[in-house]
Amino acid sequence: MPPSTAPRSWKEKQRQEREALILQTAEEVFCEKGYHETSIDEIAARVGIAKGTVYLHFPSKEDLLVALFRRDTEQVISEVEAIASSPGCSAREKLEAILHLLYGELFKKRTRLFYSIYNSPEMRILLEKKKEMGAHWGQLTHCLEELLAEGQAAGEFDPELPTSVMLSLFLNLVSVRGYERLVGQEGLAPAEVVRYLARIYFKGIAAEHKPSC
Question: What phi and psi values does residue 157 have, to the nearest 5 degrees?
């Protein structure tokens, strides 16, 4: 049994490495040329494999895009969950770190590319059909809601504010359009933008400490 397992493991490793290379190359070409101008032929040529080999891994260009979206969102969610579970930090400190992380993602060209693609009706339908949006969005919002509730329980955040309202406001801070306006047009550094947004947001949801009589 062991001798037959080794070749399969080696072949599987080769398959995974080839798939990762195809994804990396597809991302580069998408960012250079745009999604609609990119062809499977060019991706295959850059990888140095036959076009049919690409189709063995990804049946269509749309499947390539979905795989890239899945890879990146899973990585971001993993990092968000790691921040949320870090010991010795307050809920506010964790949320500020997550805000920095998410704004850092906006700085990446591929994120803005995915955003523009996602805004096209056909791709939105595709992602929703493949259930890519719902599951990942649910993981992220659940994690953020738990942190907001944690902050309320610790007396950091106003207990009278519904977590759904605080969550909605937090998510609205992370906007590609806002990023492009503040960083691209106004010339602010991403770290500056996060600092200003965090100041406004956390002052707004802070618990009121009434003086005792």
Answer: -110, 150
Residues 20-38: tens digit of each pLDDT: 999 999 988 988 888 888 9
> How many helices (DSSP H) and strands (DSSP E) are in the chain?
11, 0
CA distance 24 to 193: 30
CATH of the domain spanning 1-59, picked from 3.40.50.1980, 3.40.50.620, 1.10.10.60, 1.10.357.10? 1.10.10.60
Q: Which CATH superfamily is domain 61-213 in?
A: Tetracycline Repressor, domain 2 (1.10.357.10)
Question: Which residues fall within 8 angstroms of residue 176, CB to CB, at 6 or more apart?
Answer: 106, 111, 112, 115
d(CA 151, CA 206): 9
**pTM passes above 0.85:** no
pLDDT (tens digit, 9 = 90+) per residue, 98-139?
A: 999 988 876 676 666 766 666 666 666 666 666 656 677 788
Look at residue 176 and give its three-state secondary structure: helix
* Contact indicator for 183, 135 with CB cutoff of 8 Å: no
206 SS3 class: strand
Burial class (CB within 10 angstroms; exposed 0-12, middle 13-18, buried 19+) of 169: middle
